[in-house]
Records
---
Amino acid sequence: MRLNPILTALSGAAVGFFIGVSFPVQLGPSQLPCYYVFPWRGGEGGGEATAGSSTTTNILGRLWVPFVVSNNSNSTGAAAAVLQQPNATATTATCSPAAANNRNKPPPTGAERLPPKIVVSESDLHMRRLWGDPRQDTPVRKYLLTMTVGFTEKANVNATVHKFSEDFDVMLFHYDGRTTEWDDEFPWSKDAIHVSARKQAKRWYAKRFLHPSVVAPYEYVFLWDEDLATDFFDADEYVRLVRKHGLRISQPGLDVTRGKKTYDVTTRRNDGSEVHRSTVGGPGNCSDVHTRPCSGFVEVMAPVFSREAWACAWHMIQNDLIHGWGLDLNFWRCVDDPEEQMGVVDAQYVAHRAVPTLGRQGNPETGGGGKVRARAWREFADFNARIRNADRAAAAQQQEAAAAAAAGSAAPLATRPPQPPRSK
Ligand SMILES: *[C@@H]1O[C@H](CO)[C@@H](O)[C@H](O)[C@H]1NC(C)=O
Ligand SMILES: *[C@@H]1O[C@H](CO)[C@@H](O)[C@H](O)[C@H]1NC(C)=O
Ligand SMILES: *[C@@H]1O[C@H](CO)[C@@H](O)[C@H](O)[C@H]1NC(C)=O
Ligand SMILES: *[C@@H]1O[C@H](CO)[C@@H](O)[C@H](O)[C@H]1NC(C)=O
Ligand SMILES: *[C@@H]1O[C@H](CO)[C@@H](O)[C@H](O)[C@H]1NC(C)=O
């Protein structure tokens, strides 16, 4: 449907290759715990046509890396290393019962007990009919728009939704408990998915309701706030530009003449450019363009993720840190080349009205919005500490694996090596 047939064939071949190589002898039930259900049907879709070969490599990289002994410094290299391997000794060893206690073994998915052909590891957020032939239901849309909303912002949300075409499935997260009112006023609401949980933050919903296997069919996922002025925005045109420029994490430029601004790099350029990826100088004083947030940076209020980038970002959202502060400074980890694959779309832009809607959701008797902000700051510190520690642990594991490989023994599995943090 959305997939370039060549890519589909290639990723199918990759999966076939994987299964064939991993289970060269027998496929008995005792071997099945090593079967890993890859949550994606394919790559980033036809949109990455210009980077087709690297996308394919990247799929292989993500697929293979967890099973590979590697001392390569990047995932592309790891994938290449596997493909060059004449046999799969390391992989087979990993899946043997002897390796059952390996701490890096992927946990069972639950699908192992079933005959593989009945396993459906993906879903979507598209509503179907209760009657008729399932094959004749309206097809799942190509993209997904999600917004975290309160009913007081209904006019703006309605205006925003109207900027998105029929190619989008729409999902609203309600933090104020008011859901049915939307149906009464807006016809599109009846076709939208509504999730209601009071006083929760955008990242809380995203973690719980946008699991990568559930949003798998959508080539791009929009995670938007409710307070964006979209007068000069068209979603289809936005997707066209993002695809054209190979942006895997992006946002519309922010029109600072009409709205708030936090960073230079996400400010819309009014110079006729379609997209930009970095900034230098200016009030943000980006003297080093290679640091975040001077390039490879997208803010949290209106990010747009490719399917694969979202799968990564979802895993980075901490379950307990619901405000998600600090995530945007780390989105760069979710693409191969942040300075190329992350950017800001100037030609389709919005204004950030910065309505402190969620801030009002603190309990007045316990401090209200002030305490909400205090928690967000605390979460920011916690997140930074966690990611620092995780980087250190991954680096240590990497060294251990390299040492073990050098010693010729079966090494623990390599994880994707951390890239050096470059945020200021
Ligand atoms: C690790 O890297 C070294 C040097 O690049 C190479 O000789 C060695 O084969 C590599 N080991 C593995 C397990 O890839
Ligand atoms: C990643 O690995 C590939 C293949 O080994 C290599 O050509 C490339 O230079 C590496 N890139 C970086 C940034 O290390
Ligand atoms: C291939 O298998 C043979 C025999 O099991 C082993 O000696 C050799 O090291 C393997 N080669 C690689 C690259 O894993
Ligand atoms: C919703 O937005 C559309 C497009 O801007 C507009 O035509 C319509 O009147 C709005 N609906 C309501 C109930 O305000
Ligand atoms: C940028 O930093 C320099 C010093 O490094 C300072 O002199 C200058 O005023 C700053 N520019 C802005 C716009 O803040």
---
Amino acid sequence: MIVQCCVCGKIRHDARWIIPTHQQLKNEQISHTYCPLCAHKTITEYRKNRTLLLSPIIPKTTPQSC
Ligand SMILES: [Zn+2]
């Protein structure tokens, strides 16, 4: 079975991630995952987006005046 990165399409070959040839993908069961590079990118993006999403929820410290 081939393990393929779902972002960049590279496959794991021994301990390395390489761009697959058509022959390597032919008649193979493919399991999708993230290669270390895309995993790092995805986590970084996720953290950035999460910060953006959470920022409007932070309560304002300015007191209301009557
Ligand atoms: Zn990748």
